Input
Amino acid sequence: MRRLLKKTLLVLATLATLGVLAIAVLYVFLRLEHNTPLELPRPTGPFAVGRATYTWRDPSQTEAFAATPGTKREFLAWIWYPAVPRHSPPVPEDYLPVSLRTAIEHQRVGLINLLTRDFSRVRSHSIRDADVSPKDRSYPVVVMIGSVAFTTLAEDLASHGYIVVSVEAAYRNSIVAFPDGRVIHGSQENNPETLAGKEKEQLAIKLQNAASADIGLALDQLARLNASDPSGKFTGRLDLNRVGVFGHSLGGAMALQFCHDDPRCGAVVDLDGAPHGIVINEGVPHPVMFLLSDHGSDADPDSLKIKANVRSILDRLPSDKKLQIAILGANHFSFSDDAVL
Output
């Protein structure tokens, strides 16, 4: 009996030691991975890429999603564009500005932080203080409903001759870090993923209507910038007669809503986003593309409803104004930088 007890204790001690070693090895591996430098995929077009940020306010309108009544509407605009470097060698922009990196790191603690990339070690391909390329007099504009987390996609589009504008609304995005150092966190109450059923649908529609208005305000601001940019960078360089809009997930539904509402939209691409609201029954009077991840043979009630809603929009358009593509093997987050990070 004594010998059996001794054997059992020895086995337990060995297992405990192996467990501690495994945890230590895992920790070292995660630490190395967390700190390993990473370069985003290189843009495939012929242009270098510049990046600029602007803070836009609309003092005539209040922000319905802010905690404090009467808060004025405010959003941050990221602009990627075909560029010519001013310096040789060109100075790359940080993937994320320090204020945004710091805010994100404060939300991540312990193991969660180790399971994610150190953003200070991530390198993008956007160039600091770059001039707009003189190759063309002006460039078509693509409004991207999504944050800097879609940098790879934005840089690639800019390298092919598009000016890509991303708008982040304060209080509705999870974190918005303005160039003046202010960091505004969104409320969980404004996140439809925390809800289900009818409540989720109602909030999604409310958010997409607000986003549609944001895009309209952004195009107004771009028109002012095109008329007279204080820096001179974008004056006369934006072709606002050629405007496309795209977004991912709920951003795709927001893009559809804007192109339903505003005649300035020339075309819309929905990246794996379920449609909501009136666009399902009324459609969109502009060319529409659904670019989807691999949903395989999804046949649950929610998936079937989404597929029917997509068909309802596409069926209202002539064959040369619609396109639906699914990428085999892709998942919902393959469209963002998360696929690399």
About this structure: The radius of gyration is 23 Å.
